[in-house]
Write a structure and sequence with these properties.
This is ABC transporter ATP-binding protein. It is a single chain. The chain has 7 helices and 10 strands. With 234 residues, the protein is an alpha/beta fold. It has a domain of 159 residues: P-loop containing nucleotide triphosphate hydrolases (Rossmann fold), CATH 3.40.50. The strands form 2 sheets. The protein has a 6-stranded mixed sheet with strand order 6-7-8-3-9-10. It is globular.
Length: 234
């Protein structure tokens, strides 16, 4: 008998509404789904469908209007801002479209940034950053600053920064949206390796059907509603 994989993320009746002057804009409407631990999920849908809003809620960057978000047995929708900040630093790595690297810092120092929130000493931070850079194939580029790296290399540094704290969950918002096709494929292969070989659960927003092919599971949103779930057979 095959053992059941427990969900890392459980979403129940999730809603999100924004106030726009006198009007209320409901972006997400009663979503219900689970993401098993070890999944690589692609979130797809037209612009304005609620993909990034959902991603921000799962990553604890925003709070829902209603419903529940449970991650590894913890209700994050009931946490205070301070509790959420601490939870994010322990459990989530973020990768964005435009890298968000500090231009005055080397690749290694950029990767070390999340570790400044921990009690690790300088030597331990350096070692962990070196390991993360090695995992993304940039062990020889640690002393280079962002302007000395290609776009694909900068995104690799951003991914190293996202995994340096060894989070279970990676949140990726259009991680290949600013890259040429070859660099994009290399980044997607790297994410696939982190998922398959290192057990990272990944939730990725993308407009690109080719990017979604690297995922194990695709969720399609339209107008704030989950319209389709597709699981890719290995």
């Amino acid at each position: 008998m095959t053992a059941l994989v427990s969900p890392l993320v459980s979403i129940r009746n999730l809603t999100k509404t924004y106030q726009r002057g006198p009007e209320k804009l409901e972006v997400l409407h009663g979503l219900d789904f689970e993401i098993p631990a070890g999944d690589f999920v692609a979130l797809m849908g037209p612009s304005g469908s609620g993909k990034t809003t959902l991603l921000n809620l799962i990553g604890g960057l925003d709070a829902p209007t209603g419903g529940e978000i449970e991650i590894e047995g913890q209700r994050i929708d009931t946490m205070s801002a301070g509790q959420l900040s601490h939870w994010r630093s322990q459990n989530v790595g973020f990768v964005f479209q435009f890298y968000n690297l500090m231009p005055t810092l080397t690749a290694q120092k950029n990767v070390e940034l999340p570790l400044l929130l921990t009690r690790l000493g300088a030597g331990d931070r350096k070692r962990r950053a070196e390991i993360a850079l090695q995992l993304v194939g940039l062990s020889e580029r640690g002393k280079h600053k962002p302007n000395e790296l290609s776009g694909g290399q900068q995104q690799r540094v951003a991914i190293a920064r996202a995994i340096v704290s060894d989070p279970k969950l990676l949140i990726c918002d259009e991680p290949t949206g600013d890259l040429d096709r070859q660099s994009a494929e290399e980044i997607l292969e790297l994410l696939q390796t982190l998922n398959r070989d290192h057990g990272k659960t990944i939730v990725m927003v993308t407009h690109d059907p080719k990017a979604a092919e690297y995922a194990t599971h695709t969720l399609h949103l339209d107008k704030g509603t989950l319209v389709e779930q597709v699981r890719r057979v290995a």
